[in-house]
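OP here, attaching both records as promised.
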Amino acid sequence: MSITFLIPTRNRLEDLLDSLNEIYTKAFNPYNVYAIVTIYKNDEITLKNIKIIKEIHKNITVLVNENTKLGYIDMDKLWDKMANLVKTNLLVLWTDRIRMLTNHWDNVLFDFYNKHKEPYMIIRLKEIETWHWAYPIITLELHKLIGIFKSTAPDAYIRYIAEYTNIELFLETIEIERIPQQY
């Protein structure tokens, strides 16, 4: 079993480092955890620190987004590029402002997955003080079926699929938290 976190980032190096550190330090077996990080080419600070990002764990891949015009409204294009590289059983739409709160979250998730073992699954985690749907985990098989995230808000698109297909599962024993944006 393995999972890949898809993490776009722009001008939030410290948030990215914190998020990645939480993912890997709280995993029971971090060698089953992968991350694909996409950095915008005009994000000079983060680009200068790629080595530090990769030093967190050897399973981190860093991509550079050449199209600086892609913003939040075009997030689906970034998610698609990253998702098409995934070879793990599960993938999760994540961001640099999310923190993993549960120790050994990977064991909990993989046990849950193996208990249900459906090719098409959408798993949502317990988000502290939010609406419990912004960062879905989906099976690689489901991503292959739907092909691309056909929405400017891929998490909402996944939610729409979940509502109409009855393939969503709630895993309340893994807690995550969204860190508010600092202005």
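Record two, same layout:
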Amino acid sequence: MIDIRTNTVKGNFPTHFNNYMLANDDHGNIYYAKGKQVYRYSLSEQLEYPIKSSAYIVAHSITRIANEIWLGTTAGIGYIRNDSMVWVYKTSLGVDNDGIKCIAADSKGDLWFGSYFKLYRLNRQTYHLDSFPELANADNRTLALIRDKIFIGTYGNGYMVFDRDHFVRMPTGRNHELSTTH
């Protein structure tokens, strides 16, 4: 591992992990999934700590939002506090291959999350949950907030933008090269 502030080598991870799911916090920790377990790795101690969960989970996404580490899993979404999972919303997916694939927050503080089957928006003040029939079974793979708009990337159904309470389908390109995200 390399400290990008000082360009010095800080250490090695003890074993193989899912390197596409990484997030760091402000305290010198890195969060990652290895097999069916999520870990916090302390750079200063060079030790790995398992994240406790009250539910069986397989992590599908790890994201830092507003200085919290969020997990999208087979059991739902939540954030990590004191090396434990704090659940915000639980799904009924449960199957290892299904789960929350992507998480983003919009400028209002609402939490967006997508699975293979649905796109959700959770109002974090009222806990009101919306889902959008326009993206049912769309296999949502990526979410991003760009200039107060939510961009949604799907596997095989192209890109969508949510702007002013409406979805807009993005062009897929001449040869449909923009119809799939991974």
